[in-house]
Amino acid sequence: MNRFLRAISAGVAATTVMMLVFLFSQVQTRSQLGAPEAIARFVGMPEHHVVGFAVFSAVGILVWPVVFVAVRDRVADRRGPRDPTVQGLVFGGVLWVLFLVLGTGQVSWPFVILYLFFTLTGHLAYGFVLGYVYERLA
Asked: Which of the residues 1, 33, 125, 136 has the least number of beta carbons within 10 Å of its own beta carbon?
């Protein structure tokens, strides 16, 4: 299978898992941590949550998996075998830091800890599944 097709397939699985984590966060916080709303604000369309969801899905399925494939060898653990799940976790951690710097909206104080927890969990789950599925499809 072509490596970019593998990456997109892994992106579908990883984005689905990340959506489930964010859905769980929505339920637990009674919609105080809206990921689609934050992305819609980031792209300049705060009233269009569907656009935020579409951008979230497209970037998670198409863009980040291709970037992962392109930088995969550079993310490798130098002290041991190149475990794709570890590479994915590192990649997810980098994405989380980028998300915090670029995409964090207005989160009120009581929800900051939950926001950090759920976004970190979502990004790490995304990276783990991305690396795992990408390698399994080889």
From this structure: 1
State the residue range of the domain holding 55.
Answer: 3-136
Residue type, 52: G
Q: CB-based contacts of 82: which residues, under 8 Å, 6+ apart?
A: 73, 76
In this prediction, residue 42 has a pLDDT band, given cuts at 50, 70 and 90, of: confident
For the chain, helix, strand, coil in percent to 5 are 80, 0, 20
Rounded to whole angstroms, the Cα distance separating 2 from 18 reads 24
Rounded Cα distance, 54 and 123, in Å: 18
H-run or E-run covering 1: none
Collect all residues with Cβ–Cβ distance below 8 Å to 2 and sequence separation of at least 6.
none
Burial class (CB in 10 A: 0-12, 13-18, 19+), 89: buried
Contact (CB, 8 A) for 131 and 91? yes
Q: Write the pLDDT tens digit of every residue in 50-82.
A: 888 888 899 999 999 999 998 886 655 455 557
